[in-house]
């Protein structure tokens, strides 16, 4: 039921999991079910991106998963446990072959790399730059923290990895996605974490429960005051340009190129997400 109804929660993207949420004895049936679900027209109709987290290619399931989901037209394949650029090169060689075999446009299947180990974090830049198919990289905290011999706490334990993954994504010009927040009943803790990752510059977060979707969307939506200020900045910049002024000020604050660029970004974000609701 979770598979076929998930579009009603209006996510930007739906991720079907064939890896750790599926027990070994259910791997084959889950793969079949996900492949059938991908064929439903509902995702395209609602403009929702489909993602499948396949099993790693060094397991007995990874390649079977990939064969099934690329043929079924998935938008994005998420590779778990990505440790190096070679992992992505291996994946993309298979994807290109499968696309040719099934008549899909070569290059149309996009990729996302989940970084879940110290090695992955250290190699984040080369992973992020490893393929033009990559739309983003994601940090996966639970496996990463096991590798680091620690556990989830106040965020200090993730600080280096969050910064490293984010910088790698920016160097490569792709998106960065933060970790899942596992206590789905703790809205306050979730929003605190969202506020931190938004401030760092993350594009979003992997979610595990529909109740987290609206909370995340709302937290990322700019406030009415931010949109109003951004519009004033853009207007002042345009006026400055008309008058041929080098330096412009708005209410005593200097407005230069990065401030104008940020203001345009806020206006663009508001077009997609609307304005933040006070809750
Ligand atoms: C957390 C919980 C058990 C809570 O259950 P609860 O029962 O309290 O949920 P309720 O809120 O009561 O459900 C209300 C209604 O929503 C429906 N509903 C719930 N969840 C839904 C959903 N996900 N999709 C669609 N629908 C959903 C539900 O069916 C019900 O529908 P209905 O009956 O019609 O009212 C449940 O959400 C859940 O199983 N989540 C998915 C967990 C998952 O994906 N794990 C794998 C990825 S992490 C990982 O692997 C670690 C990682 O690898 C990460 C990385 O790679 O990033 C690393 O290393 O860090
Ligand atoms: Mg994991």
UniProtKB/TrEMBL annotation:
<dbReference type="InterPro" id="IPR006475">
    <property type="entry name" value="Citrate_lyase_beta_bac"/>
</dbReference>
<dbReference type="GO" id="GO:0000287">
    <property type="term" value="F:magnesium ion binding"/>
</dbReference>
<comment type="subunit">
    <text>Oligomer with a subunit composition of (alpha,beta,gamma)6.</text>
</comment>
<comment type="function">
    <text>Represents a citryl-ACP lyase.</text>
</comment>
<keyword id="KW-0479">Metal-binding</keyword>
<dbReference type="InterPro" id="IPR005000">
    <property type="entry name" value="Aldolase/citrate-lyase_domain"/>
</dbReference>
<protein>
    <recommendedName>
        <fullName>Citrate lyase subunit beta</fullName>
        <ecNumber>4.1.3.34</ecNumber>
        <ecNumber>4.1.3.6</ecNumber>
    </recommendedName>
</protein>
<feature type="domain" description="HpcH/HpaI aldolase/citrate lyase">
    <location>
        <begin position="1"/>
        <end position="210"/>
    </location>
</feature>
<dbReference type="GO" id="GO:0006084">
    <property type="term" value="P:acetyl-CoA metabolic process"/>
</dbReference>
<dbReference type="Pfam" id="PF03328">
    <property type="entry name" value="HpcH_HpaI"/>
</dbReference>
<keyword id="KW-0732">Signal</keyword>
<feature type="binding site">
    <location>
        <position position="116"/>
    </location>
    <ligand>
        <name>Mg(2+)</name>
    </ligand>
</feature>
<keyword id="KW-0963">Cytoplasm</keyword>
<feature type="binding site">
    <location>
        <position position="143"/>
    </location>
    <ligand>
        <name>Mg(2+)</name>
    </ligand>
</feature>
<dbReference type="GO" id="GO:0008815">
    <property type="term" value="F:citrate (pro-3S)-lyase activity"/>
</dbReference>
<feature type="binding site">
    <location>
        <position position="116"/>
    </location>
    <ligand>
        <name>substrate</name>
    </ligand>
</feature>
<feature type="binding site">
    <location>
        <position position="53"/>
    </location>
    <ligand>
        <name>substrate</name>
    </ligand>
</feature>
<dbReference type="InterPro" id="IPR040442">
    <property type="entry name" value="Pyrv_kinase-like_dom_sf"/>
</dbReference>
<dbReference type="GO" id="GO:0008816">
    <property type="term" value="F:citryl-CoA lyase activity"/>
</dbReference>
<keyword id="KW-0460">Magnesium</keyword>
<keyword id="KW-0456">Lyase</keyword>
<comment type="similarity">
    <text>Belongs to the HpcH/HpaI aldolase family. Citrate lyase beta subunit subfamily.</text>
</comment>
<dbReference type="InterPro" id="IPR011206">
    <property type="entry name" value="Citrate_lyase_beta/mcl1/mcl2"/>
</dbReference>
<dbReference type="GO" id="GO:0009346">
    <property type="term" value="C:ATP-independent citrate lyase complex"/>
</dbReference>
<dbReference type="GO" id="GO:0006107">
    <property type="term" value="P:oxaloacetate metabolic process"/>
</dbReference>
<dbReference type="InterPro" id="IPR015813">
    <property type="entry name" value="Pyrv/PenolPyrv_kinase-like_dom"/>
</dbReference>
<dbReference type="GO" id="GO:0005737">
    <property type="term" value="C:cytoplasm"/>
</dbReference>
